[in-house]
Amino acid sequence: MNDESMMKETDALKRLCSSEDLAEKKLKIYSRLLTDVTLAKDMERLAIRHEKRKETLTRLVYGKAKKTTKTGGEA
């Protein structure tokens, strides 16, 4: 694989990581604002799923995790 295609893949992974981060943050906010407890719990579960995806993408891009998160994983 040449350098240009590696850079394109790395950039794509970084954009995906950014999208997952944004989704995680929004879902955490929704989970705190919603008055329906069941729906709020669903939003929190989705936030955790996005956080785990972000962790995986971060490892692919940077080769390691950047920080430790509250859920016990690494980001």
What can you see in these coordinates?
The chain has 75 residues and is mainly alpha-helical. It has helices at residues 3-33, 37-62. Helix 1 runs antiparallel to helix 2.
**Count of DSSP H/I helices:** 2
Distance between the termini: 27 Å
Rg over CA atoms:
15 Å
What is the molecular shape? Answer: elongated
* Unreliable sequence segments: none
Largest sheet report: none
The counted number of beta strands is 0
Order of helices and strands: HH
Number of domains: 1
* Strand percentage: under 5%
- Approximate helicity band: over 70%
Q: What's the overall average pLDDT, rounded?
A: 88
Q: Give the structural class.
A: mainly alpha
Short summary:
This protein is mainly alpha-helical and 75 residues long.
Identify the notable features of this structure and list them briefly.
single chain, mainly alpha, 2 helices
